[in-house]
Amino acid sequence: MHCATRIRQCFSRTDSRLRGNDKQKMKPVLAVIGLGLIGGSLARALRSADAVAAIHGFDPDDAQCQAAVALGVIDHAAASAAEAVREADVVVLAVPVLRTAEALAAVLPALKPGAVVTDVGSTKQSVLADVQRVCGGTVPPWFVAAHPIAGTEKSGVAASFAELFKGKRLILTPHAAQNAAALETVRALWQMTGARVVQMDAARHDAIFAATSHLPHVLAYSFVELLSQGESSEEIFSNAGGGFRDFTRIASSSPQMWHDIVRANAPEVLGLLTAQIKQLQKMQALIEQQQWADLQALFERARTARERYLADIE
Fold first, then answer.
1. CATH superfamily assigned to domain 205-313
2. Which string of DSSP letters, residue by residue, matches the chain?
3. Is the pLDDT of residue 17 over 70?
C-alpha cells in the first residue's frame, strides 16, 4: 500500500457528513516544535510531498518562527507550543535532546485525542526516559521515537531544504507499549520524505551512533580546539588545505546541540573515547619507536576497512 494512502487511512475523519471518498482524502495536520534545520526540512519535505493538510510551528526563538512563515516552511507560527499542537494529528518534537522533556510537558495538556507524537533526537534511551518521566512513569503508546540520519553543519530554518532526507536512513526505536498504528503513521510520513526507514532497539541505536556520529564530533571539536590554542594558530589555519576542511567540517555544527547529544549519551561516548585514546597512544608508541612498517600496516588496515564498509552501505 502506498504510504500516502496509509497516512490518509490513519487520519480519515469519522464525521458522518463526509462521504467515504472524502474520508480517504483527509490528510493529517502537522505541528513542528523546533524550527531548525531538521524540523524545517521535515516540514518542507512533507509539504513538497503533499502529505499534510497544514503545518503549524513553534520555536522559542521568534526570529525562527518569522523566517519559517516568510519562507513558506509552515502555514502558521504559534505563540506557544501548546497552541501549535491543538489541531495537530502528528506532533514532531524537533528540539535538542535535553529539551525533549520540556517540549513534551509543554504540549501534553493541549494534545487532541488520537494525536501521535514523535521526535528526531540523536539519542533514544535518554528521550524514552524523559518521555516516561513526563508521562507519569510509562512511555505512552502514541509516542514514537525516531532519528533521521541526516543533517549538515548548518543550523536554523533558513538552512532547511526538502531533499535533506532523500535516500538517508530514518531509525525507529519502538518501545514496549508501542501502538502499531502510531508507529505506522510515523513510518509512512518519513517514507514520503524519501527516507529509508529501519527499526532497532534504543540501546543498540545509542551504541552505534556514539561510534559513527557522536565520537567523531567530539574528535573534530577537540582537534580544532588544540590547533586554535597554539601560538601559530593563525598561520596554521590560513594554510589549511582540503584534508583539514574535510576532517573538521562537523566542528562547525551547533555546539549546543552536540553538547546535549554527548551529555545524553555520555556512557557510550566515554567508553569509545577511552578506546580512542588508547589507540592514539599505540600510534604514538609506533612513531616514537620508529616502527614505520607497523604504522603503515595500521594505515592500510584502516583504509581497507573504511572502503569495505562504505561499499557495503552505498
1. 6-phosphogluconate dehydrogenase C-terminal like domain (1.10.3660.10)
2. --HHHHHHHHT----TTS-HHHHHH---EEEEE--SHHHHHHHHHHHHTT--SEEEEE-SSHHHHHHHHHTTS-SEE-SSHHHHHTT-SEEEE-S-GGGHHHHHHHHGGGPPTT-EEEE--S-SHHHHHHHHHHTTSS--TTEE-EEE----S--SGGG--TTTTTT-EEEE---TT--HHHHHHHHHHHHTTT-EEEE--HHHHHHHHIIIIIHHHHHHHHHHHHHHTSTTHHHHHHT--HHHHHHHGGGGS-HHHHHHHHHHTHHHHHHHHHHHHHHHHHHHHHHHTT-HHHHHHHHHHHHHHHHHHHHHH-
3. no
